[in-house]
User: What shape does this take?
Amino acid sequence: MFDGIDPYAAPSGSKSIVEILEDARSYLQRLSPRAAHKLLTSPDQLSPPSVLVDIRPLQQRQIEGEIPGAFVIERNVLEWRFDPKSDARLPVAERWDLRVVVFCSEGYTSSLAARSLQELGLWNATDIVGGYKAWKMEGLGGVPLGG
Assistant: This one.
């Protein structure tokens, strides 16, 4: 122990990753792979625009594959690319109602990322249940570029 602090005891108020993930998901309207594919390939003209975003690192994309038409924005720069107030944002990220559909390999990191985008004010951000692996298992194809 150092100064009476036990380094093996969880600090007061800390949460496990399971608790953090559950909390993040409680704010999301997560999409099945089929629902996400339909949203992105058959957009409703009255709905806000939607984009599909792959946050997996390069090595993972090289091993698993990619979804044609998805933006590839690694997790470490996601918020800067989609914050409408950021000088580093993508041109598509000028609207607060933009539906950013995030995916990772299995749908865990993407839930945390989507919630982070919601905290920036992008209230329509969400993710895909099961991530890329579920999309691939469904045999779904690509989406319109940037969609």
Summary: Residues 109-120 form the longest helix (12 residues). The chain has six helices and four strands. Helices lie at 17-25, 33-41, 58-64, 78-82, 109-120, 131-137. Residues 4 and 64 are 47 Å apart (CA to CA).
